[in-house]
Design goal:
Elements lengths: L2 H4 L3 E12 L4 E13 L4 E5 L6 H8 L7 E6 L2 E2 L5 H11 E5 L10 H5 L1 H5 L4 H14 L15 H13 L5 E5 L7 H18 L2 E5 L3 H4 L4 E6 L2 E2 L2
Amino acid sequence: MSDREISHDLVAEKVSFSFYDSNFKRSTEVIRNVSLSAKPGEVTAIVGPSGCGKSTLLYLLGLLERPASGEIFLSGKSMAEADDASRTSERNLSIGFVFQFHFLIKELTALENARLPALKSGKDRGLADAQTLAVLDRLGLRAKADRPASKLSGGEQQRVAIARALANSPRYLLADEPTGNLDSSNSSLVFDLLMEFACEKSIAVVLVTHNLDLAARSHRMLEMRDGELIS
């Protein structure tokens, strides 16, 4: 068995991606020959100016887009050319997402929002509740599990979004500017929680951020310019 077959890294190998502009009838390459490996138990931060391709790379890693060329491996599985059903299944089972905007359903409670991925994956309601409540408790939100999302503060809503990403025990967590709408105190708290869960649950976290102070605290910081990783 090869190293890749037994590795639980999230790997991109020479990945490129282009957007097609139908108005001008031309393609613009936004990701150029990018390779990286995100390891379990580590937070990899990707920094760079707006428009350099950071978020697009995250969507490729999360199987939300397909690369024009190159390969994506999840625990040794080749995913770039996998069929849609396989990609959707792998995404639901293995990947958690946290975005700058929490995208909570305001009418639902913290628990109801956070347990959605677990229920979608087919877990029993009782098991989904137990797993989700354990994560909410760890995030300091157990007492607010039954509170509607609309009644939570911005920092609390983002922590619910993290709980939603973690409740289904993902192997990989992809975070796109997760502290972008938070004050410095809540930003630091959210980042610390991501670091703790990465280490304790052996999750490979890839974090896109403009916050260089937080990025410098990650296990590894990569810089992106014009669609390429330069460090």
